[in-house]
Amino acid sequence: MEIPVELIVSVTGLAVASAAFVREFILVGRRRLGYRFQMDTPVTGETDTASLVGALANLSTPEVGGAPLELSKLSVVLVRVENGGTLAVDPDDYTMSGTDPRVGLHINFPGREVIGLAVTELDGPLPDNLGPGSGIGKRSRGEGESFVGIIDLPKVQLERRQHYKILAVLKRVHGDGEPAEPVLTGRVKRGRVVETRSQPGPSKKLMALSGFLVALIAVQAVLALRTDPPPRDCAGGELTLVGSTAMAPMIRKAAQNYAKTCTEAKFTFDFAGTSDGLVKLVQAGPTQGMLAISDGPKGSGFDKLVEYPLALSSFSIVTHPGVGLPNLTTSQVRDLYRGNIKNWNQIGGPDQPVVLIDREAGSGTRTALENRLLEGNRKVFPYIPCAGRPSGGEQCEVKTTGGVASFVAETPGAVGYMDTSSVSGAVTVVSLDGVGASEDTMKARTYPLTVVEYADTHGQVAGDSLSAQFIDYLMHGQGRAIIREFGNIPCLDAVGQAICTP
């Protein structure tokens, strides 16, 4: 089975978006500890700034280890630690291993010593979690070029959107120029520790996902705007379609779709019944410009016509809603059309005279009824058009399927027959011997009013003619989808089953 490209694109987009959502907000995004270094500024050159002059002047005189501090080696760092996820971070969520079980995060400063720190912007209960005995502190490891100053941060309880800041003063131990960037390390269960930005723009991952979805929407738009693929061989010219009024809506739509992609093809329609169409085709003589659609095989008298099986279709017995009989037996249908049942109360219905809404002689639908159900034996009624039916008349005839639907719906006690795809809610569909029309019952031929639809040409037609190409479109191309749309079964779709036989 060929999978539509549109379905593949849609499923791919849904899968990618769903996976991104699950990963970002369920697997790792629900618990996220964020941090960012809001300031890492050398003291040198700032001693004249009005707001800092007092503080930095005080730093110029203290001694550490007996030696005065050199302002040129000092720097000030401000780091913000925050809960950027959707769940609280509990002390048990920190998984960083170390000698002090109270510590959950480390801030490392390669080549710099931490000579002082303070906690700022304390929120709620945070002072108790960052006070003496909490595990917060400063230390160092290594010597020379491997020297690293370290700030230990405790396993702080952080509710959603809660944060705190650490302000530290550092001294350069070795090296010149720009110091190495500080690094915060740590881990949390079922989450992660990530660096954030103070004014974040869209993340690269979010931009990539957005770009993918935009591209996906663009592809779907292009696919939606594209026309149906053309038939395997487009043919131009003019073709008149005649024959079955029951199949007229289906064939008309197929022709219109064909012409959308094969713009040189022009169709005209003259559906007036199967017999009428076959007669017109015979009268036209050998021609490439006319195609007849018939309900059932062509029968005798049309030896010069060549028929091509298109689809298996069904017809339904329909009644006026007031009749109230959802099922009839084939025997009862025969008795109705042989004139043996004149009132519905004879078979369990209301006390209502039976009115037969018939198709005119030569109709393919009427022929199907007579061949499939009536065994070629029915009462011969004088021709009376339904439009002029006298009051109390037991039978009248119409030319088209639409006429059957209208008169059955409007006439109390009426019964008629029509192709199943044209049935509307204005009439009641009757099952036959308890079997309704469906794809399964049609294939199994357990539904008695099942017929094969044919396309007929006058003799063989050229392979590159519009007649031949349109038949190919109906039998092997996109026209099969339209046949199915109208509740029929394309003969090609029943490979291996001898269902497309009279």
From TrEMBL:
Residues passing through the membrane, by range: 6-26
Superkingdom of source: Bacteria
Gene3D superfamilies listed in its UniProt record: Periplasmic binding protein-like II
PBP domain residues: 231-475
Keywords recorded for this protein, A-Z: Membrane, Signal, Transmembrane, Transmembrane helix
Protein's recorded name: Phosphate ABC transporter substrate-binding protein (PhoT family)
Species this protein is from: Nocardia alba
Lineage of origin: Bacteria, Bacillati, Actinomycetota, Actinomycetes, Mycobacteriales
